[in-house]
């Protein structure tokens, strides 16, 4: 059982990764953050965990921040891959798009994804993160009723 919150950042921009990581760490030391600057590397990470059945579930993030515009696989392509994995079907991994795009079609596309819970524009700020975590906590309370 995990005692710390685990947040994963997937973004090809290393400056954005650093800024987001610092924002998360400023909320508290009880949050573990991992970062992937390659969407393919992130996919391999989850494929490896899925191959381990239940043994790797302590390594699953509680929350994933996913950029849209990345080389190799876009964030939307990565969501499509995740959607085919049992790991995402059986576990409550929240995925939030964190993108510089304010394009309405990107926002609508994220809403249509069954895995994506929110869409946030960069940069990740303390206020945006606190609001997101508060909403996630409220939802968990509702689901337990």
Can you lay out the helices and strands and say which pair or pack?
Layout: E1 5-10, H1 14-25, E2 31-36, H2 39-50, E3 63-66, H3 75-83, H4 86-90, E4 94-99, H5 104-112, E5 116-121, H6 126-144
Parallel strand pairs: 1-2, 1-3, 3-4, 4-5
Q: How would you portray this structure in words?
A:
The mean pLDDT is 86. Helix content is 46%, strand content 19%. Helix 2 (39-50) packs parallel to helix 3 (75-83). The chain has helices at residues 14-25, 39-50, 75-83, 86-90, 104-112, 126-144; strands at residues 5-10, 31-36, 63-66, 94-99, 116-121. The protein has a single domain, classed as Rossmann fold, CATH 3.40.50.2300. The protein starts with a strand and ends with a helix. The protein has 145 residues and is of the alpha/beta class. It has a five-stranded parallel beta sheet.
Structure in a nutshell:
Helix content is 46%, strand content 19%. With 145 residues, the protein is an alpha/beta fold.
The total strand number stands at: 5
CATH superfamily label: Response regulator
Shape: globular
CATH class: Alpha Beta
Mean pLDDT: 86
Q: CATH topology, what is it called?
A: Rossmann fold
Identify the CATH architecture. 3-Layer(aba) Sandwich
Instruction: Report on the biggest sheet.
Output: 5 strands, parallel
Organism: Pukyongia salina
Protein name: Response regulator
InterPro entries: CheY-like_superfamily, Sig_transdc_resp-reg_receiver, TCS_response_regulator
Modified residues (4-aspartylphosphate): 67
